[in-house]
Design brief:
By secondary structure, the protein is mostly beta strands. The protein folds into two domains: 81 residues, no CATH class; 34 residues, no CATH class. It has a two-stranded antiparallel sheet. Strands 3-6 form a two-stranded antiparallel sheet. The chain starts with 24 loop residues before the first strand and ends with a strand. InterPro entries: Ig-like_fold, Ig_E-set, Transglutaminase, Transglutaminase-like_sf, Transglutaminase_N. GO terms for molecular function: protein-glutamine gamma-glutamyltransferase activity.
Length: 131
């Protein structure tokens, strides 16, 4: 939202190589992803891990570095936004599915049916989930 707050878990500070108090982790990557690498500058790839109970939504990602020469905060760039959804394969997530058949039906299908209307007067129609 427009006013992220640390207390609500919507503003997260994650120190490199340590867990934040909310369970987020940022670990330096040892190897470059295939096809990537330094292009004339200093680059560090970082793996970011969210805890299973992190609020879902869009996160604006920014990086702050500190050296002997001072501190630098990279500006927010929309292409670096992180969209956090849910993980029905993770037992610690509240949306975890115990049955593989449920995962197939509710998560992995591209098409399905949705129901709309009121409790007593409802309709159904086909839906492309676009996953």
């Amino acid at each position: 939202g427009p006013t992220p707050q640390v207390a609500k878990g919507t503003h997260v500070l994650v120190p490199l190589g340590e867990a934040s108090p909310t369970g987020w982790r940022a670990e330096p990557e040892e190897a470059w992803p295939e096809g990537a690498g330094p292009a004339g500058g200093h680059t560090q790839w970082v793996e970011l891990r969210a805890p299973p109970d992190a609020p879902i939504g869009r996160y604006r990602l920014s990086v702050k570095t500190r050296t002997d020469r001072g501190e630098f905060g990279a500006p927010f760039e929309p292409q670096n936004d992180l969209v956090l959804l849910f993980n029905p394969w993770c037992p610690e997530d509240s949306v975890y599915f115990f049955l593989t058949s449920d995962l197939s039906e509710y998560v992995l299908f591209f098409f399905g049916r949705i129901f709309y209307g009121t409790e007593d007067f409802f309709f159904e129609r086909s839906w492309n989930y676009g996953q």
